[in-house]
Predict the structure.
Amino acid sequence: MKSSDKNKMKMYTRRATLVSAGMMLLSSALVGRMYYLQVTSRSKYELLAEENRISVRLLAPTRGDIVDRYGNPFATSTTDYRINVIPEETEGLQETLDAIGAYIPISERDNERIIRASKKQRSFLPINVANNLDWETFSKMNVNMPDLPGIQPDMGTTRFYPQRELGAHIIGYVGAVNEQELQNDSDPLLELPDFKIGKNGIERVLDDRLRGGAGNSQVEVNVLGRVIRELERQDPEPGNQARLTLDLEMQSFIAERLKDDTAGAVVMDIHTGEIHAIVSNPSFDPNDFNGGISQVKWDALRNDIRKPLVNKPVSGQYSPGSTFKMIVALAGLEDGIITAEDTKYCGYRYPFGDRVFHCWNKNGHGDINLVQALAQSCDVYFYRLARELGIDKIHAMAARFGIGERFNIGIMSEARGINPNGSWKFGMVGERWQGGDTINVGIGQGYVSTTALQLAVMTSRLANGGKMVYPKIYFDENNNTVPEDMGINPDHLDVVLKGMEDVYYHQRGTGFRYRLRNKDYKLGGKSGTTQVRGISAAERAAGVIDNEDLEWAKRDHGLFVAYGPTENPKYAVSVLLEHGGGGGFAAPVARDILEYVIDRDIERNQQTNQQPSMSGQPV
Amino acid sequence: MSARIGSNKRIGLRQKFAELNWFIVLIICAIAGLGCAMLYSVAGGSMEPWAKNQAIRFGGGLVLMLGVAVIDIRFWMFLAYPLYAAALAMLVVVDVMGEMGMGAQRWISLGFMNLQPSEFMKIALVMALARYFHCLTDDETVQLKSLIKPIILIVLPAVLVLRQPDLGTTLLIIMGGVAILFAAGVRMWLFVVSFLAMFPAAYGAWQFLKEYQKQRVRTFLNPEQDPLGAGYHIIQSKIALGSGGVDGKGFMQGTQSQLNFLPEKQTDFIFTVIAEELGLIGGLSLLGLYIVLIGYAMIISMSVKSQFGRLLVLGMVITFFLYMFINIAMVMGLLPVVGVPLPLVSYGGSAMLTLLVGFGLILSAAIHKETTIPRGGAFA
């Protein structure tokens, strides 16, 4: 054998011995462990195995509350008192059920269900008899347990919406998990038969935050599956609270104010974008959805022509009407084709091609400048201006103010609206853009379409000096960005805001009747009317029928946007009255809302200034 | 290519069977027999659905093992690289098939059977590394540059198997390969340094992981955090094992395993059934059989004249040991749950076939232990 081979062999023998020693060492660890499990801990495991077996049960967490900006609850979880019956422990299931009947009525159907269940499942397992008992009944039954052999009082949690209809469109509701959700989400909680997840609104958008984490309890179960005792318990992790920017009091005030209307309203902080109130009327009670809504209630909601399930300020799309004139005005000023002083002539009629466009004012406005045109809502001024600008410049300015944009604020079914231009029309309608289309858009009619939310954002960006503020509805670490400056000439914004102020405070302003009197501050606003029906030339000649004389569904929609106080703006409001008969009807609503919120702020400031150290807490 | 007179002469088939180490064959049969008995037990006293299949497979595997054993060790050395290349090609094919949207696939369907390239690779890698080190002088063996090729040989299949994804097999391949490097005589300090370097490397990699990936690793390392998922097996397995005690609950009397508290009891958790029903005595007996088998094979390896044969035996023994150790440590809660079967006992075909072919090679090395092979290779 060569020496190299000998060396290799020696090396191999040494190393192989080491490897063998390593394997022996590891094997003895196995022996040690086997000894520990089977000899040292034998009695422990024997107990677990022979008499009992471990069964792991999931524990559901309590869902996080949804509260307003001051911590008032929109959605909470309430303890739900239940009564179960354990057939094995009764002296006769039917006798016990009859005895329970003295406290709570058990319907024929429930009785059958319980008897049927008792035949199917093992007799020591509980069967649910009744849910949602009031405390009085529940405690009475607890006290009388000796007379009710086999009953098992139990507690769970149920989602509760204490504000009922108020804010239902934003809060949403919870419901049972469906097959698809089960497949897309690996959270074991979803497999609990009773578990509910967010189905709509904030409940759905912030479901992860609200849901919490599963806990578990390892219980000893005997051969038959009966629980002997709990071995280990990991408590569930309750869901986090979701704090909304909404203000419950204001929400409630607005809902009350809109009570009889089919309407929507949005109140926004123009600097932060926080939405203080967003109301859609009529509404629905999300509590009805908790245990699965009844067919009768569901049909009633679905078939109501006032569409209570639709979130009107967010999902409803309407022609902005004259509220769009601020956009056209600003586009003109920024483009430089008009100044604040330039006048245009309004003689009621504005012919274009083979068509004639009209001003709302049959006498015409004569020579009129921009501020006056906004205050008096002169149509012809804006026909002319729009025609001179062309659709592309109007489209660009509207886009900067959020028209046609989806903000994804955390509400399902947020509508996008339409900010039209040539390519949009060609793509959607299949026709080329016409000059008449531009003229229609000039007064917010025709193809342009917005939501009340977009109008609130538009008004905020006008009133805050041209800052690109975005609406938000809940507090979140990720959305606290400082709004960026849009680069619009402040003088131009001032002209537009002056026009809006004159809507209320100039004698000929369209909102003069609804101005605030006896207040230290002023408001600015702009009305808008959306025609629901076309007005034919013949009808116009014969005299247009007044809205009040029309049936409800044919009346005009009324819109109004407003901001205030004008000296130092803080809030923007947009109000939408479906078939409300025109913008004039929405003006007092917007005024009342702003008056309420500004007065309340003033009052709170005085209180904190007068008694700075009384409680140290902001009210 | 001068073969040494006497040591390298052709041996007749009858003489080979006479030289065959029947003691090893006997122990293998004993282990497999115990396995079949346990499969009979967990089926509630029935040959169906596992015990019969397993017995038939073992019979076939045994014939294959003897066939491998009587073939000249020089022929196996000649085949080492081609087999490695074939195994690597199959791993690539499986990888590509997986990419093509057929999901995580670990096997190639040949119609009559499923070929599992990662199993094939375990043998091929050991053969290739053994051949590589056989062909080096002892001076070359300790040089750093000689390490480049074997490391590539190990890393290529490891990466491909990891992509399947099969962490258990990846670790088996890497550890088997490293063991051969060690036995071949690669400098000791290299292992020490590599071992120490693993800690900062692991720490660095950890920083790069996303939170959900970290959570996955944590569950892997500590399955009892997750008592409904991975941890459930371990909790139940420990109860079954511990309650078996010294003498066990008796054959077919294991309450835990018989009452379905234990999942996958016929495959990865079969040791739990043995320990529950046959107790510490049964468990130690099986472990004893394994240890005797391993120790005996190690002793044989030291008497083999060719470096190829020695390293081949060692590589196969290490693979076998790792199967056994990881599986038993896993069911006793010493290691995280990875899908590694108990060798020759767990129900299943591929691993058993691999191990029997491996023992065929060990036996071949034993029969041909006097054969010397020149560094250039026998048929090269």
Q: What stands out?
A: Chain B touches chain A through 53 residues (CB under 8 Å). Confidence is low (pLDDT under 50) at residues 1-6 of chain B.
